[in-house]
C-alpha cells in the first residue's frame, strides 16, 4: 500500500512500518525499558478518561490554532525530538521538518538527529525547536545552542531524563548497533527487507552532524562518544547556564514531579514537557496524562505545560488539552508515517491527527481548542451517583470531582 490516503489511522501506518523496516529498527522505535509497563500505561491511561459531549452549539468553524513557546501553531501539536530518523527512511528529518512546516505544527530536531541543524532550517520557515542533550564538554553544548539560534530556531528543549541509558531489551536481543552493522551476525534480520537495505546503502552515509562539529571521526566513534560523554549530573546550574546561552523560549523535557516543575518555573523556563521519554527510560514511571492536572493546577499560570507519551489519536490530544495541557508532542506516531512512506506518510499522519482533533472538538461542542475543559472529561467506569455515594450531579464542575480524586 503506497497510497497514504488508504491509511485511515496511525495504527495503519504502524502496521506498514512494521512490514517495511528490518525487525531491529522497528523494535528500536517501538520498544521501551524493561517490561515496557510504562509504554503500555502511557496509552492505557488515556482510555481511563471518557469524553462528555455537548450538543446544540455552533461548531461549523473550529479553531485549532494556539501559540506555544512563542510559536503560532495551526494546532497544538509538536513532532517530538527523535534520534536517527534517516535510519527509518532516507527522507529522514528533512521529510519530517518540511511536512511539519507545511502543516504549521512544531518540529523538534534532536541532538541525535541524522540531519544537521542548518539543513533542517534550509527546508523553509516553520515552527521549529532544537532539542539539546548535554554532553560533558560545554564547548560542544554551547556550540549546538548557538548553531540553533543562528539557524533561526524558535525555541530550545532541554531533555533531562537521559542521565542513564534506559534498558531496552529489544535492542539488546536484536544486537542493534549505531549505525547498524550489516555484518554476518545481524545480516539475516536486515536481508529480509531488501528494499530497506537498498535504500540505506544508496543514501548518504549515516551521520550525527549536530554532535559531530569539532569531533570529526566516524559515526560509530561519535555514537560511543555520545554514550561515554553524556552528562550524567545535570543540575539546575546547567539549566541556568543553558537558559543564559539561549536567551529565548526554553522548555525542559522529561520532568514528572510537580516539585521539579516548580523549580523549572523558578529557573525561568517557559515550558515543561511532562514526559517519560515514551516509556524508554524508567519503567514504572507514571503516564504523563495522569500527572497533568496536578501540575497545571499548581503552575499552569507560571509555565506552559506540554505532555507526550502514547498519543496516536486526535481524541487523546483533546483529552490532554481538556485537562489543561498547552500542547501535545507525538514521537512514534510520526515515525511510523515516515518509516512507512517518507514525507507523504508524515503529511497523512498530521492530517489524520488534525481531522480527529477537529472532529472531537465538534462532537464535544467546542468551536476552538480553548473551549476544551474538564467538564468534557469523565472517569471511565464511574458508577452512577446513587451507587457511588455522591450527590445528584447538578453542575458541570461536579464532573471534575472524580478526576481530581484520582489525580491527587
Ligand atoms: C525512536 C525514538 C527516539 C527518540 N529520541 C529522542 C531524542 O533524541 N531526544 C528526546 O528528547 N527524546 C527522544 N525520544 C522521546 C520522544 O521525544 C518522546 O518523548 C516520546 O516518543 C513520546 O512518546 P510516544 O512515542 O509514545 O509519542 C525518542 C523516542 C523514540 C520513539
Question: Descriptors for this entry?
Answer:
single chain; 408 residues; alpha/beta; TIM Barrel; 2 domains; eight-stranded parallel β-barrel; two-stranded antiparallel sheet; 18 helices; 12 strands; 12% strand; binds flavin mononucleotide
Write up this protein:
This protein has 408 residues and is of the alpha/beta class. The protein has 2 domains: 368 residues, Aldolase class I (TIM Barrel); 34 residues, no CATH class. It is built from 18 helices and 12 strands. An 8-stranded parallel barrel has the order 4-5-6-7-8-9-10-11, surrounded by 7 helices. It has a two-stranded antiparallel ribbon with strand order 1-12. The protein has a two-stranded antiparallel sheet with strand order 2-3. α13 links the parallel β8 and β9.
Amino acid at each position: 500500500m503506497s497510497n497514504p490516503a488508504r491509511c485511515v489511522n496511525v495504527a495503519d501506518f504502524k502496521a506498514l512500518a512494521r512490514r517495511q523496516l528490518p525487525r531491529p529498527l522497528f523494535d528500536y522505535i517501538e520498544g521501551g525499558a524493561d517490561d515496557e509497563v510504562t509504554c503500555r500505561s502511557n496509552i492505557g491511561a488515556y482510555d481511563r478518561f471518557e469524553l462528555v459531549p455537548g450538543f446544540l452549539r455552533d461548531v461549523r468553524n473550529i479553531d485549532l490554532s494556539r501559540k506555544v513557546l512563542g510559536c503560532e501553531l495551526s494546532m497544538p501539536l509538536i513532532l517530538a525530538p527523535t534520534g536517527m530518523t534517516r535510519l527509518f527512511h532516507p527522507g529522514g528529518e528533512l521529510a519530517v521538518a518540511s511536512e511539519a512546516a507545511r502543516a504549521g505544527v512544531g518540529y523538534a530536531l534532536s541532538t541525535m538527529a541524522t540531519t544537521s541543524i542548518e539543513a533542517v532550517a534550509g527546508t523553509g520557515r516553520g515552527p521549529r525547536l532544537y532539542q539539546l542533550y548535554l554532553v560533558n564538554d560545554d564547548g560542544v553544548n554551547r556550540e549546538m545552542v548557538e548553531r540553533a539560534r543562528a539557524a533561526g530556531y524558535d525555541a530550545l528543549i532541554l531533555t533531562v531524563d537521559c542521565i542513564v541509558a534506559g534498558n531496552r531489551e529489544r535492542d539488546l536481543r536484536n544486537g542493534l548497533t549505531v549505525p547498524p552493522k550489516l555484518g554476518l551476525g545481524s545480516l539475516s534480520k536486515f536481508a529480509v527487507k531488501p528494499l530497506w537495505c537498498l535504500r540505506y546503502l544508496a543514501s548518504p552515509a549515516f551521520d550525527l552532524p549536530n554532535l559531530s562539529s569539532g569531533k570529526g571521526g566516524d559515526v560509530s566513534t561519535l555514537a560511543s562518544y555520545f554514550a561515554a560523554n553524556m552528562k550524567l549530573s545535570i543540575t539546575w546550574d546547567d539549566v541556568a547556564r543553558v537558559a543564559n546561552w539561549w536567551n529565548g523560549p526554553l522548555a525542559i523535557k522529561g520532568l514528572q514531579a510537580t516539585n521539579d516543575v516548580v523549580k523549572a518555573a523558578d529557573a525561568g523556563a517557559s515550558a515543561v514537557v511532562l514526559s517519560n521519554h515514551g516509556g524508554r527510560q524508567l519503567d514504572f514511571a507514571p503516564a504523563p496524562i495522569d500527572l497533568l492536572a496536578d501540575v497545571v493546577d499548581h503552575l499552569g499560570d507560571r509555565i506552559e505545560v506540554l505532555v507526550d507519551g502514547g498519543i496516536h489519536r486526535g481524541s487523546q490530544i483533546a483529552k490532554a488539552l481538556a485537562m489543561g495541557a498547552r500542547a501535545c508532542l507525538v514521537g512514534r506516531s510520526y515515525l511510523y508515517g515516515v518509516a512507512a512512506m517518507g514525507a507523504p506518510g508524515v503529511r497523512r499522519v498530521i492530517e489524520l491527527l488534525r481531522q480527529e482533533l477537529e472532529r472531537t472538538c465538534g462532537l464535544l461542542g467546542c468551536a476552538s481548542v480553548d473551549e476544551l475543559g474538564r467538564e468534557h472529561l469523565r472517569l471511565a467506569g464511574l458508577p452512577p451517583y446513587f451507587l457511588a455515594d455522591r450527590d445528584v450531579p447538578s453542575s458541570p464542575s461536579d464532573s471534575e470531582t472524580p478526576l481530581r480524586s484520582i489525580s491527587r
